[in-house]
Predict the 3D structure of the following.
Amino acid sequence: QVQLVESGGGLVQAGGSLRLSCAASGRTFSSYTMGWYRQAPGKEREFVARIISVGITYYADSVKGRFTISRDNAKNTMYLQMNSLKPEDTAIYYCNRAPNYWGQGTQVTVSS
């Protein structure tokens, strides 16, 4: 059974930074594509960033240049460094492991 636990969310002012973490269970963490998604109130869940096993990364246009996804395979942990945060980044952020495992989410609120 795969378990994903997010942490690091909170309340921050516009222009500030947060770093989210996703701790994963399992011994084959390094083999899987990992990603971050978010869901704002009244909106559908959307893709934020993805990192494949060899470290190649992909980003949504809305966060490109501001967010950085990374992973530490030795710690079975994935990160999302979020800089220059905007009020429109406010959402619940979810960790995802391929093919379809999800964490419980962590709230990020950016005040203007």
